[in-house]
Amino acid sequence: MRFLVFVLQWVVFVLCALLDDRNSCCAFVSHIMSHQSHQSSDVLMMASKGGDADKNVRMFTDKLVTASGKPVCRYALGGAARSTQSEYLPLKYRDMLQNADDDTGAPFYFYYNPHRYPQFLSGVSQAFDDSTARRDIFFASGGTERSPAALDQRLDDALAFCGGEYLDGFVLEYVCQDELDSDTQLGKELQNAIDHVQSYVRENRVRYVMASTHSHRVGRALAGAASLDAIMLRYNMSHRKAAETISFPEALENNIPVLAFTTTRWNGLQREASPTVTTADCITFALQHPSVEVVLHSARDEDELDDALLPLFDCSDNIHWMSDSKYNDLCAYYGSDEIAWNDDDYDEYPDESR
């Protein structure tokens, strides 16, 4: 229908031109340009709130897939350094996805340091029974090291909990601003580390190369690096300005999936009395943005896992992750003065949010 209207509009334009009706032609062109500008503004406004709902409100993403080709769940369960998770938690997460009405997607597990949470990793290592089942699960880990020998050791450590043959995603963690040569150029040591992890890909020991940072200026540089498959960035309702203006646009332009983390701000957002925020709200707020493909979250117990996954199980019945009114209320309350929220020293680069 839109195409037909477009054709008819330009037929009118041609007729005006043939009749040498300059005033009508100019008025028509002005109308078309105004209409297109209005449409572009609408698209940008929609993008800031999640873009095309039909495409964005989905439980799985095919931008990251398992070795068997399954799209991964957009909620990734991670190990928690600030709490003790039970051995059963990773298994419950797997079972919930397998028992879902749409069981075509795969669990996504993430662990920063294989030595930090033994109970959680015990459960992770039990999430598959054989090599065939292993191919249906996505595991990501990594390290802060940059030297080849240290990276090799961290890969070996990570492989011990996911079958020993390959890791789906290797993350070069906590990339800092001093690891850049310029706003857009990665430093030599960092690039060498990326190149070394790329050698794991050629050896079939790693499938995706990723990097994480707490700086959105670094995130912008990482999003422009052709050698990375995904980036991990901090994003939540009280920490969004820098992401939405600095790193996310570059990620969108280069089609680099963003894995959002600290979406609850270390569980601080749920403790606020007004407006009341749940873990599910924190998850859906992040998923609302078109740059975010996956939310990395460390549920502390089974109840919080239920809360976090509920909106994903219900997403087939929704056209938006969150209503516009609720989204706007949260942005107004939590995002009006991000510097004021930083009494917890969460934001290591507060100048990026000014």
Quick structural overview:
The protein is built from 13 helices and 10 strands. The protein is of the alpha/beta class and 354 residues long.
Model description:
- With 354 residues, this protein is of the alpha/beta class.
- The chain is 43% helix and 16% strand.
- The longest helix has 27 residues, at 22-48.
- It starts with a helix and ends in a 19-residue tail after the last helix.
- Residues 1-19, 21-48 and 50-54 have low confidence and may be disordered.
SS-based class: alpha/beta
Instruction: Work out the helix count.
Output: 13
Order of helices and strands: HHHEEEHEHHEHEHEHEHEHEHH
Shape estimate: globular
Approximately how much beta-strand content do the residues carry? 15-25%
Give me the side-by-side strand order of the main sheet: 3-4-5-6-7-8-9-10
Number of strands: 10
Radius of gyration: 23 Å
Uncertain residue segments: 1-19, 21-48, 50-54
Mean pLDDT, rounded to whole units? Answer: 84
Q: In angstroms, what separates the terminal alpha carbons?
A: 44 Å
Helicity, as a percent range? 40-55%
The major pleated sheet works out as:
8 strands, parallel, barrel
Mind sketching the topology for me?
Layout: H1 2-18, H2 22-48, H3 53-56, E1 60-65, E2 71-73, E3 75-78, H4 88-98, E4 108-111, H5 118-125, H6 131-134, E5 138-143, H7 148-159, E6 167-175, H8 188-202, E7 206-213, H9 216-223, E8 230-234, H10 241-253, E9 258-261, H11 279-287, E10 292-297, H12 302-313, H13 324-335
Parallel strand pairs: 3-4, 3-10, 4-5, 5-6, 6-7, 7-8, 8-9, 9-10
Antiparallel strand pairs: 1-2
Helix pairs in contact: 1-2, 4-5, 9-10, 11-12
